[in-house]
Design brief:
Mean pLDDT of chain B: 92
Number of helices of chain B: 6
CATH superfamily of the largest domain in chain B: D-3-phosphoglycerate dehydrogenase, domain 3
Strand content of chain B: 25-35%
Low-confidence stretches of chain A: none
CATH class of chain A: Mainly Alpha
CATH topology of the largest domain in chain B: 60s Ribosomal Protein L30, Chain: A
Largest sheet of chain A: none
Number of domains of chain B: 2
Largest sheet of chain B: 6 strands, mixed
Oligomer: heterodimer
Amino acid sequence: METNINTFEQLKNECIERGKEIYEVAQENMALNSDLKIEQVRAHANRSLFAMKEAIQVGLVSKELSMSGMCGQDCFRIQERFKKHPALFGGTFEKILKYALATSEENIRMGRIVACPTAGSCGILPAAMLSVAEDCDCSIEAQLDALITAGEIGRIVAAKVALAGAVAGCQAECGVASSMAAAAVCQLRGGTIDQILNASALALKNILGLTCDPVAGLVEVPCVKRNPFLAVHAITAVELALAGVESKIPFDEVVDAMEQTGAMMSPTLKESSQAGLATTKTGLEVQKRVFG
Amino acid sequence: MKKTTLYDVIAPVMIGPSSSHTAGAVRLGLLARNIYKNVPKKVIFKLYNSYAHTGKGHGTEKGLLAGVLGLKVDDRQIKDIFNSDIAKSIEYEFEYCDNFKYHPNAVDMTFIGEDSQMFISGESVGAGEIAIRQINDFTVKLTGKYNTVLIVYKDMPGMLSQVTSTMQYHNINIASLFCDRNAKGKQASMVISVDGELTPEIISTIEEIPNVYFVSYIEKLEN
């Protein structure tokens, strides 16, 4: 039994060999490598799951602005809109946008969130996973299976590339969050191991090259609004994968491409706020207003 | 290669907005507190580079102070820490500087007590992960993920084997080991991370090894 899995190919082989699903292999290995019981691993995941739900509930009713004053009321705006004009794509779509904004706005007002994988991308996985879980009546256990599946995806990507905008740009933060979200939702929807890996690969593949150019160096613009965009992006990947659409480039190679793209990305576009949106006329004005 | 676990990507539960600039700052403060052990009279935080430039917008100063005061990364008190009663128990000061030799998210912390002072330098290396790189004059590597013992001793043959055989006797598995010295034959340091816990009995056995000057047991941070 291989407990040191660092590629998706290994993960798939291990799932087949043990006759188990991704979350089962993930929680078994986590338990073995950390001297824990599987129940303890799941209890830890449950703490995150609970905190994700709490962040959404708090975020949905808050209108407090961030420290810079740039963000904090978009979740309110979209809820007002949906009260009068339901979204084109239905209730689950509405929830995804609301939950993603609620969570990422909680983050920038120094509320409590779950970094998944990072704080700036904290709204993507909960929004996609919990909206689908609620609307498909998934049990808490099924939600934990999905969360652990997502965690295993993020863990294996992180084994190769540090999940930090400063290292590989936003593709490694919001991009990986979306890839994890795709895995979680695909698991909830009864996807096979191949479908889950394809969903994750498709989500990541289609966001490669995304830079990290936050205005004034804050996790606000464009980060907050990027969360609902990439939560929806994950759902697209899931629907394609469940239909049997495959990523022609295997997931491990997509991660290699992300690593290479990240390494070649100019440092000015990697969380240093020296280019892109951060140095637009308005971006610089905001920086001056906030930090003087 | 950096070992990432499930917990690193679907956790921690934390106060926002930034894993490196907020949660990382809290954890640096917490681990420094575990190293210093006593309640300081005053702490001077020197923030470098990105920590210095964008720290304010991310609550980095709040995080560092909250950590030193013992608050966990998910404590809602962090947001208003400067106005809280617990912050009144110590003095604190922030300095800001640029130094390209330092990690982009680095901080030096000087703990000042009644009759002692300790210098602790650390970095927030991404996704809430941290590393303490220096304690006083010694280069170390502490991540807060394992219970760790810091041993300062005379640089001479056989010291390592005496310490590790003590651990072996108590059936303790060593996860990582890092040694450094000021100069040949002078003071040296060992940082040993272990699976499980070291009991006070094991610590005092190590303290009794001849030519061991100082032993400090640094407990890991909770996830």
